[in-house]
Amino acid sequence: MVNVEKLTNKKLAIELKPYCDQNHVKTISWLNSEDIKNTFGLTYHITVEQHDSWLKKNPNYLMWTINYKEVHVGNISLQINNRHHSANLQIYIGDNRFRGKRIGYHTMLLLLNELFTKSEINRIELCTLTDNKIAIALYKKIGFTFEGTHRQVIFKNNKYFDQYYWSILAEDWHDIRN
Ligand SMILES: CC(C)(COP(=O)(O)OP(=O)(O)OC[C@H]1O[C@@H](n2cnc3c(N)ncnc32)[C@H](O)[C@@H]1OP(=O)(O)O)[C@@H](O)C(=O)NCCC(=O)NCCS
């Protein structure tokens, strides 16, 4: 239902490219960095082998690299639910020198536009930790709707953390853009 193809915003020099094995090393270093672990509530260290085998066992998990001026700066991924025409989205600008330059915002617009105009995807959902102000600002700015709080859903460092849930529907996207 969704094809992982190259998507480009030429004017802004942002390109989303299909993720491949050559991207593993950089990706794993980001996923194991403290700031990405903290923002996603990850509690364990991931190896290249675990990541590789997980991707191969999960054909409905689709991934693109985010490239800015030809530099791989982050990743965006979807866990697709074909039955319900929905997907769970994750994004990170792994290289923190490239944060705050609107790359996240334009990457989201590029992918959401593709999904809502060229595929059957009807709903995109995602979650944020409650203190991730930048991600919350980003999703609000795009037009995501707040759906509620999952209380104490993460257990990390002997503490429980809440998560906020957000979604955007195809009809929201068309309303916002028209
Ligand atoms: C969250 C993330 C993807 C946002 O991408 P980004 O390219 O850094 O953000 P953008 O530059 O597109 O900014 C989008 C909005 O976020 C807010 N924002 C961005 N940087 C900010 C900062 N330093 N302080 C406060 N708000 C900020 C602003 O509202 C901004 O909109 P504006 O430029 O119109 O003011 C990126 O910062 C990131 O990867 N962070 C670490 C991982 C993460 O938190 N992923 C999301 C998990 S839910």
Provide a descriptive summary of the structure in words.
33% of the residues lie in helices and 37% in strands. The model has no long low-confidence stretch (mean pLDDT 96). The chain has one domain: Gcn5-related N-acetyltransferase (GNAT) (Aminopeptidase), CATH 3.40.630. By secondary structure, it is of the alpha+beta class. It has an eight-stranded mixed beta sheet with strand order 1-2-3-4-5-6-8-7, with helices on both faces. The structure holds coenzyme A. Coenzyme A binds at residues 36, 39-40, 74, 91-93, 99-105, 128, 132-135, 137-138, 141. The site of coenzyme A has 22 residues, from helix 2, strand 5, helix 4 and helix 5.
Short précis:
The chain is built from 6 helices and 8 strands, in the order E-E-H-H-H-E-E-E-H-E-H-E-E-H. By secondary structure, it is of the alpha+beta class.
Keywords:
alpha+beta, 8 strands, binds coenzyme A, 33% helix, 178 residues, eight-stranded mixed beta sheet, Aminopeptidase
Write the layout of secondary structure elements.
Layout: E1 7-9, E2 14-18, H1 24-31, H2 34-40, H3 48-57, E3 61-68, E4 71-81, E5 86-93, H4 103-118, E6 123-129, H5 133-142, E7 145-156, E8 159-169, H6 170-177
Parallel strand pairs: 5-6
Antiparallel strand pairs: 1-2, 2-3, 3-4, 4-5, 6-8, 7-8
Helix pairs in contact: 4-5
Bound molecules: coenzyme A (COA).
Coenzyme A (COA) binds at residues 36, 39-40, 74, 91-93, 99-105, 128, 132-135, 137-138, 141.
